[in-house]
Design brief:
Elements lengths: L18 H4 L2 H9 L3 E5 L5 E4 L1 H7 L4 H4 L4 H4 L2 E3 L11 H7 L4 E10 L4 E11 L6 E7 L1 H36 L8 H31 L8 E4 H10 L2 H6 L3 E4 L18 E4 L1 H17 L6 E9 L2 E8 L6 H4 L23 H11 L3 E6 L5 E10 L1 H16 L5
Parallel strand pairs: 8-10
Antiparallel strand pairs: 1-2, 1-6, 3-4, 4-5, 5-6, 7-9, 9-13, 10-11, 11-13, 12-13
The chain binds adenosine-5'-diphosphate.
The site of adenosine-5'-diphosphate has 22 residues, from helix 11 and helix 13.
Amino acid sequence: MSFFSKKENPAPVAQTPPVQNATSPLAEMVLANIHDGVIITDRAGTVQFINPAAVTMIDCGSAQNAIGLDYGLLMKIESKEGREYPAEENPLIQAMNSNQYLDNCEVCLIVGQSGKRVPIAVSVIPVSGHANKVITFRDIAKELAEEGEQTEFISTASHEMRTPVASIEGYLSLALNPQTATIDERARGYLNAAHAASQHLGKLFHDLLDVTKLDDNRLRPHFEPVEMVGLVKQISDGYIVPAKNARINYQFGSNKSNSVSEVRRLDQVVYGYVDVNFMREIMDNLIDNAIKYTPAGGSIYVNVLGDGDRVLINVTDTGMGISSDDLQHIFQKFYRSDNSDTRTIGGTGLGLYLVKQRVEAMGGRVWAESAFGEGSTFYVSLPRITGEEYEKRMIAFQNNFNQGVIQ
Ligand code: ADP
């Protein structure tokens, strides 16, 4: 059977009410002239209608060649990165087999018999009251190329600007140091403000560079077997002094709900397979935020637990909390909640986006629970490995390390 040959005993086109008949002339004209591909299927996934843009993108010659075929024969996809999907992970199959919407999912379309890969954004809309499904898709090659150019520009600009900013910061530190400069109190005030601004700028360029590297897969995790409680404790204990300076109580190894007498000593040994530098950046961001968004007198709690086959880390604070509206967006690039409490607190809105990218690159998940005015808890869940796996991977890791192989 050739790629576009019909199913055995296809439903004769005349018996299935042609969609054209069910649409108004105006709708037909729109469907015939838009650049997005549109396919309408029946309950069984058989193509009932296909517009000219879809015919061209799929390269099936004509609408008549496609009508009566199973949509899966026309819409073969793989992941954006060129990975073949197992059926249970194929977003198109999953949406077609359920009553769920699929919204602008970025994948690669494998075109006709040429096998050419075209990046598309595909949506599936279940038609209410019918078993029909509408599949729409558009070519996003140009958008991705433009995004790539933009990323390249931001990456180069951030890289180039980091050097002069570091130099400004260095000179301001010298000016503020009583051993290297003499300044009056008014000048100290101005220079302190300039120093804080240059540190903010330096952080912005650092984060922007990381965003571009993570977005185009240049920053990949280097996994190693790690005992997670020890690692997370070592990173978070670096915040004992900053927390004390902010007059915030810090506890490792407990949750907010544990009263002091119930604080559970963490003698549990939990193994993971993670990138240690990624873990450092993730914990730094979460604890930095916990301190930043918690007024003096508050508390932060950091905990690590083995939860079945997952490692569960939580960073809890008793700070200003996040409204439910903001909670849906805080992991997006550049999102900052805007209220009278947060307005005076500096930030780039990139920290949590970077946390999410790094956690997901290690096969994990991050989420937050919070209510405005009632503190927040950020959870990071990562794959856990057994003690036996840890030993095995440790031997392999050390062998690779000795041979200079970076994973
Ligand atoms: P920022 O640099 O602004 O802190 P993030 O991406 O780290 O950027 O955080 C995004 C937004 O989420 C912040 O602007 C803040 O409004 C909110 N947020 C993050 N962590 C907390 C927290 N622990 N408590 C309250 N709000 C938080």
